[in-house]
Design a protein that fits this description.
mainly alpha; 465 residues
Length: 465
């Protein structure tokens, strides 16, 4: 009874602890009086340390325990799984294993979360064998955690294998599978999983819909995206900032920016990502003037543009030929108006802007003077702009730069060969073709596709000599 009263008092002190000094004082008393092995006290001490950002103190207490209760180990694993030290939960689990402390089904979800955050596939598979031996494989929370860790490591084969072997699946199971395929760039598989989820009668949640919309956006699946939008309306869901932004992004990438604008106007709350999705959608729709207008409105409404915003508006300027506007925005960026320096993508937008508009000298100067190594996209923009204007000098220079960057890409040699043929420089044509033969390169077949309902038709095109 006396011990219970003391435990309650210490728990009260720990729960109301508000500083590093107090935590250390309590920790010292726990060690001196041998109370650190008390499960209730240790649990509250770890929780208090976590809330104060002092997990090292909790780990120091754990180190004093000869054979801590599994509940204490689980509490500490959970605390560290939410920290920026992802490998500590595995250390605690290894300590449990060495000291024959039997893990339970509460141990693994947070342990696997830390392995997911660190993308540690090898250790996840190691833990998987333990789960099988301990008989916790068919706990749905453990299985969902394995789905998450394999998806985070982009091992979708393993992820789907676990999914197929699950006797029961909930909305989390389906959402993790869809998210995994989406993050791995397998958008068609993500949408197929989403359709199968509907057939299984599992009701999607907001996270499911955001990931399904992202897959629609990147796969160009407009019909599915519209269906999701209708589902959101029918369900009476509030169009929060995350869901609304996903819808705008989907409509923008699927070429229906008007619907994206309607979604934008209907949203009560917006953030910089929402504005970025809208501006990027307008850029893709070649609506440069509107993109610039919305960019100006964004600033007037007090939203601070980030690096993505500037890429979007500069792309819009490029597609619409707004050279002066693009130059002014870029100079403002250089001048520090936005609080960050331009990156490679901003310079690439400017090179593309100048090249498209026929300002070839400006494009070349940008490439020559920028503080980064020129990228393939930059030389590609200069090449395209130069060929469109019949400037053989810059075309030749850019083509050779592309050959240097990607010597195994036969397409660049074909472009060079065509250029020299246009100039009547037949000896150089032979030289390029000889280089191709020496490097074992063949002229590629190009491929064009057009979607004619209900199927896609593919046409092969031989690259010109």
């Amino acid at each position: 009874m006396m011990m219970n009263a003391m435990t309650s008092k210490i728990v009260y002190l720990v729960s109301n602890c508000s500083s590093l000094k107090h935590i250390h004082q309590i920790q010292a008393q726990l060690i001196l009086q041998g109370l650190y092995s008390n499960t209730t006290i240790a649990h509250h001490f770890i929780t208090a340390s976590q809330s104060l950002g002092l997990l090292d103190s909790a780990l120091a207490l754990f180190a004093q325990l000869h054979r801590p209760h599994v509940f204490i180990c689980n509490t500490l694993i959970r605390a560290f799984s939410h920290s920026h030290i992802p490998h500590t939960p595995l250390y605690i689990y290894t300590h449990m294993h060495r000291n024959c402390i039997l893990a339970n089904n509460y141990t693994f979800p947070f342990l696997l979360k830390s392995l997911s955050d660190s993308h540690d596939l090898k250790q996840a598979q190691y833990v998987h064998t333990h789960v099988v031996k301990l008989g916790h494989l068919y706990d749905i929370y453990v299985q969902n955690s394995f789905l998450d860790v394999y998806a985070s490591c982009q091992q979708m084969g393993l992820c789907h294998k676990v999914f197929d072997e699950m006797p029961q699946r909930d909305v989390v199971s389906w959402t993790v599978l869809i998210m995994g395929y989406k993050n791995a760039g397998k958008y068609d598989d993500a949408l197929m999983a989403f359709e199968q989820m509907q057939y299984a009668g599992v009701v999607p949640n907001h996270v499911t819909m955001v990931n399904a919309l992202a897959a629609c956006a990147n796969f160009g699946a407009l019909d599915m995206g519209v269906w999701i939008h209708d589902f959101i309306k029918r369900s009476g869901w509030e169009l929060d900032v995350i869901l609304g932004t996903a819808l705008i992004d989907m409509y923008g990438k699927c070429g229906r920016i008007e619907e994206g604008l309607c979604v934008f106007e209907s949203m009560k709350e917006k953030n910089v990502f929402t504005w970025n999705a809208l501006i990027k959608g307008l850029a893709l729709a070649k609506s440069g003037e509107e993109a610039v207008l919305w960019f100006n409105r964004m600033e007037l409404e007090g939203f601070k543009a980030d690096a993505v915003t500037l890429v979007g508006v500069l792309c819009a300027c490029s597609h619409s030929g707004f050279v002066d506007t693009g130059r002014w925005i870029f100079n403002s960026l250089i001048g520090g108006k936005y609080g960050f320096s331009p990156g490679v993508k901003h310079y690439a937008c400017m090179v593309d802007l100048f090249a498209r508009a026929g300002y070839l000298e400006d494009a070349f100067k940008f490439i020559r003077d920028m503080p980064f190594e020129p990228t393939r996209a930059m030389w590609g923009s200069l090449l395209a702009g130069s060929r469109a204007r019949g400037n053989l000098k810059f075309s030749e220079f850019a083509a050779w730069k592309l050959v240097e960057l990607e010597p195994e890409n036969s397409g660049y040699y074909v472009v060079l060969s065509n250029l020299y043929a246009e100039m009547g420089r037949w000896s150089d044509v032979e030289k390029v073709r000889s280089m191709m033969k020496e490097r074992g390169l063949m002229k590629d077949l190009g491929c064009s596709s057009v979607e004619l309902e209900p199927q896609e038709h593919v046409y092969e095109l031989l690259v010109a000599h």
